[in-house]
Amino acid sequence: PAMRRSLSSFLSTAARTVGLQSIGALALMMLFSLTEGLGIVLLLPILQVAGLNLERQGEAGHYAMIVSRAFTKAGLRPDLLLLLTIFVVLVGARSVLGSVQHVAISRAERDFADCLRLRLYRAIAGAKWIFVMRSRSADFTHALTAEVDRAGFALFEMITLAGDAIMISLYAAIAFTLSALMTAMVIASGLALSLVLRRQTR
């Protein structure tokens, strides 16, 4: 219960102070993941246009044909130059979005830590003098520096974890689209290997 209350208080405080910044950072991470996914989508038609025969490669060939038909319906001829140009643009956009999202997450972390530090400072300044006299100054210093920084880092990790979850979901969706059986086998093998390694490290 105490852990749940602390987590609830942490999330509510974060939502009030840097909620919009966190949403913006997540939106940038989603765009980052989208450019990554579109780049992966273009790999198959690029290979096909480059001369690799994917027609007998099951879902991979079917998927490449769907992407090529989408270009054709849009009035574009999916030749190698066009596909490579789009791929390079996506790689460049991904690089820019990666830098921008890192700055956005770091700014949210800093603003959240500054807000907590200001609230704590006001609470100490408004506390009764006898409480301040009985407390150690080192405890106040530790709370205003290390503990507040840890809370800011926790927010950073939380936003990053949410973005990673989105990217993993995107990769898994693409993998299941291409080969559901093979993807399930890889996931099952990974889980089994994790359990074996976990038992060995105990």
Brief rundown of the structure:
Helix content is 89%, strand content 0%. The chain is mainly alpha-helical and 202 residues long. The two termini are 28 Å apart.
Describe this structure in words.
This protein has 202 residues and is mainly α. The chain has 6 helices and no strands. It is elongated and about 80 Å long. The two termini are 28 Å apart.
- Major beta sheet, specifics? none
Quickly give the structural class: mainly alpha
Strand content: under 5%
* Straight-line N-to-C gap: 28 Å
pLDDT averaged residue by residue: 82
What is the H/E order? Answer: HHHHHH
| Uncertain residue segments | none
Instruction: Tell me roughly what share of residues is in helical segments.
Output: over 70%
Radius of gyration: 25 Å
Note the overall shape: elongated
- Annotation, overall tally of beta strands: 0
The tally of helices reads 6
